[in-house]
Each structure stands twice: as structure tokens, then as C-alpha cells.
Amino acid sequence: MDMLSRYLYAIGNNLPKNSARADIVAEIADDLQSQMEARESALGHPLTDDEEAALIKAYGHPRVVAARYGNVPYLIGPESLPFYWYALRTTLTVIIAIELIGGTIAAIATSSITPYLASMDAAWNSAIYIVGIVTAIFAIIERVPSKKSPLERLGISRWDPRRLPAPPGAAMAPVSRFESLIGFIFGALALLALLDVGNVRYWFFFLFLLEPMAGMNIPAHLSAAWQPAYIAVTISTAMIAALDIAAFVRPSISAIRLWTRVAANVLSIIGIALTLARSPLILPADSPLNVAAMYALIGAIAVLGLGTALSLRKLLRHNPVMNAAARSYP
């Protein structure tokens, strides 16, 4: 039954996300259970693991079975289509991640924003080429005459039901790849601004701080007291950006991503608290901006604390130990 549950989970994971998914999985489960019972009756004994695996394998690969319920015509055949999407998604994810990471590292190393902007342009162009190349490869495999089926030529017919992953139970939902990608793009840009790569910091402060203050004629600049906050926030930004691109490649690391955000927030809070303990924040020391800066940092701590609390609440809700304790509580 464990093998059957794995098989049904794999099928459900590849079905369209609509209200019919549960009904389709239930229908397949009934069909397979009937076949197993009939087989056991014919053999006169319960199915062994090998016999159950053979019966499930004869039913079809989970992606192929799920594709039969799609009812949508594609350039790629229904049996190959799930593997086409998987190959396309995997290739796009890896190439885009490599190019964006490379562009960010090159921008930091050269102190120029140009490699970062060029990497986004390269990622866009690569996406277009990859879609064309992968589609052409699958279309050719589908149409070239051969005694072997397209799946056999792709080497997919050698799958084993016993090696399918177990259902995640109450595991946290995977991270949206789009959310992770956008998070990394803006996180990397914030990191470049903090490191003052290519005068990015100037544009950030010009848009959000210096321009409104331009007409106030208040001579002031940040003191050395900001160093702990600056170091902590820079490291935290790098941590979050790194986990965003990691989650883009592997969305299942949602819990690790949340824990990293918690650690980054705590580090930022410590750095800001150390900065608040030093004075003055703004030079000259009698500048009226000192009070505003102090309240701004206190507000930042409050926001980071709230974000940390919400993340911890979500993590604890999906913790197996906590869930088991909650279920056992009378």
C-alpha cells in the first residue's frame, strides 16, 4: 500500500491544479486496487513487492498517466509532454540562475553595475534559445521513425515504482519560482547598492532621501555609529538573496528559506540595536535629524521583529513535532 500511495501521489502531483484532481486520483486508486485484488485472487496469496511493482509499472509512468487526463493538443505527444515540460523547466532554471549569479558576482568584483544588467539581458536571450532548442529536440525524438517508443529513446522506461518519493504529508508548500526570482533580482540590486557598486547607492538615496531633503539646506552626514547596522544588513541581504536563487532552483527548500530569513532578520536587529547604542547617529551631533534617525531605526527593528515572528509562526505550524503534539493534546 505504501508503494501505491507513492504512485498515486506522483500522479496527483502532475495533474492540473483544479477541483477534478482528487476525483481523478480516487478513480485511479479504485482501478488499481481492483486490479491488485483480482491479481491476489488469481495467485492465491498477497502480492509481493516485486509483483505489486510490476502491476503498477504496467499501469504506466506517473507523468504519462497524468498526461492522459490533460486533453490538450500540443506539438509534443501526450506521453512525452510531461518530460518536455520537466526538461524545459529544469534547463531554464539552471541556466538563468547561473547567469544571474555570475552577473552579480562579476558586478561586485569589478565594482560596476554593467555585468549585473548584462546578466539579466543574457538570461532573457538564453530563455528564448532554450525554449527553441528543447522543443526542437523533443519534436525530433517524437517524429523520427524508430522501433523504440519516444519514452524508451529518452531512457524513461527504466523507472521503478519502489524508488518514488514518499508524499510530504504536512510539509510546507514549495516556493513560487517567480517569487524567488523577483526576490533575488531586487535582493541582488539592494546588495549592490549597499556595496556602492557602480554608484547604485547614489541613485537609491537620491530617489528616496536626498531629493526630498535637497531644499531643506541641512548640512548633515552619517556617523561611524552606523557601521554595525551597515555590516549586519549587508550580510543579511546577501543571505536572503542567496536563498532566493537557491529556492528558484529548488522550490522545495521553503523551510530552509524561511529559517534563513529569520536568521537574517535577527542579525539585522542585532546590528541596528548596536548602532542605536552608539551616538551620535548624524553629524554634527546637534543635528535635528538625530531624533528622526533614532525613530527610523526603532521602526526598522519593529518591522523586522514582526516579520521574524510571522516566519517563526509559519515554521512552527509546519513542524512535524509540533503537529504531533497538537494532535495528541486532548
Overview of the molecule:
The chain is mainly α. It has 3 domains: 2-67, no CATH class; 81-157, no CATH class; 178-211 and 219-328, no CATH class. The chain is built from 13 helices and 2 strands. It has helices spanning 2-13, 21-43, 49-59, 62-67, 81-110, 114-143, 150-154, 177-194, 200-213, 227-249, 254-276, 289-317, 320-328; strands spanning 221-222, 282-283. It has a two-stranded antiparallel sheet. Helix 5 (81-110) packs parallel to helix 8, helix 8 (177-194) crosses helix 9 (200-213) and helix 10 packs antiparallel against helix 11. The chain is elongated and about 90 Å long.
How is the topology of this model organized?
Elements: H1 2-13, H2 21-43, H3 49-59, H4 62-67, H5 81-110, H6 114-143, H7 150-154, H8 177-194, H9 200-213, E1 221-222, H10 227-249, H11 254-276, E2 282-283, H12 289-317, H13 320-328
Antiparallel strand pairs: 1-2
Helix pairs in contact: 1-2, 5-6, 5-8, 5-10, 8-9, 8-10, 10-11, 11-12
